[in-house]
Amino acid sequence: MKKTTMAKINVCTYDTVTQDIFRSTIYPKRVPAVLKGVKIGECKEKWDKDYLKEVIGKKQVKIHVSPNPQMDFIKKNFCYKTLPFDDFVERAASEKNHECFLSEDEKYYLRSLGDDPRKDISNFQRLFPVLSNDLEIPKFFDTDRFFSSVLRVGSAGVQLWTHYDVMDNILIQVNGRKKVVLFSPKDALNLYLVGDKSEVIDIENADYSKYPLFKNVTWYECILEPGDVLFIPALWFHNVTSLDFGVAVNIFWQHLEPSAYDHKDVYGNKDPLAATKAMQIVDRAITALNNLPDDYKDFYARRIISRIQSKAFSES
Ligand SMILES: O=C(O)CCC(=O)C(=O)O
Asked: Which of 13, 22, 235, 286 is close enough to 34 for a disulfide, judged by CB 3.0 to 4.6 Å?
């Protein structure tokens, strides 16, 4: 079946969004929104390749390098390398690089990490203090709910796998254009999830013989221009393609009570504690069902699903 059967929706765009408008009108809807005219500071004028190279210089950064622009975290079709920031930016902004790791047209992607990536949370202002004053972080959430700020720089063409995060997020597109496709949390069963990531990598040409349910998804799409801000509510899946060399910062904040989250989470993608507990209980239920003959196991598995559906699914 062709993708044209799939419902496609443009993400709603709002002009001249202030803090009040965001909090009172946009945020409560819990759907993605493109926000235009948000004050983000001087970064939009300043953050081109040469400025970034000059002010950040030789700071070492760990980056993703891939011969294939469609990066796949599940099959790991990329590798991690470390480069001085100025070299990395020069390479990411060029279509071809004679000096390369894997191939001349390899793609580069930086997602900033904390000082100790296993323990520390990315804080863009702390990691890149020379850039800090250029970016005005919109006051869309209470500051005590701030979780992380992540600098993202990538080559034109890089496509990041579909995934969800467990916290609310604004993606501030500073430089370059970006196509973002989003899927509602209600499409979780159509996305062939492995943890927080979808197995369907080539979403534009999905193989329906392998992923038949993918044709049921509702496809939300937007193109971000420099200066645009995309609100991505927690649990909304997103797949991001850089149309140009691009620079963005995204800010995650805790939408639930802070105690709901796993305090060991550094990326904002570990499921809330209650959800993890529920998944563990289901695993135990499956182990218990395995003690039954197949026909009984099947019968009780169906009854458990029906109980979850009637008691835990929401109508809307
Ligand atoms: O803009 C990107 O490169 C990726 C954005 C993303 O995955 C996010 O904001 O969670």
From this structure: 13
What are the DSSP calls for 48-94, one per residue? SHHHHHHHHTT-EEEEEEESSSB--TTTT-SEEEEEEHHHHHHHHHS
Give the tens place of pLDDT for each residue, 14-31. 999 999 999 999 999 999
| Partners of residue 223 on adjacent β-strands | 179
Would you say the CB of residue 165 lies under 6 angstroms from ligand 1?
yes
* Cα angle, residue 255 at apex, residues 252 and 260 outer, rounded to 5°: 105
- Domain 3-260 -> CATH class: mainly beta
Which atom of ligand 1 has the smallest separation from the CA of 268? 10
Closest to 138 in 3D by CA, of 21, 242, 241, 254: 21
Using most ligand atoms within 8 A of CB, pick from 122, 161, 168, 169 the residue to mutate for ligand 1.
169
Q: pLDDT tens, 137-188?
A: 999 999 999 999 999 999 999 999 999 999 999 999 999 999 999 999 999 9
Spatial CB neighbours of 316, under 8 Å, sequence gap ≥ 6: none
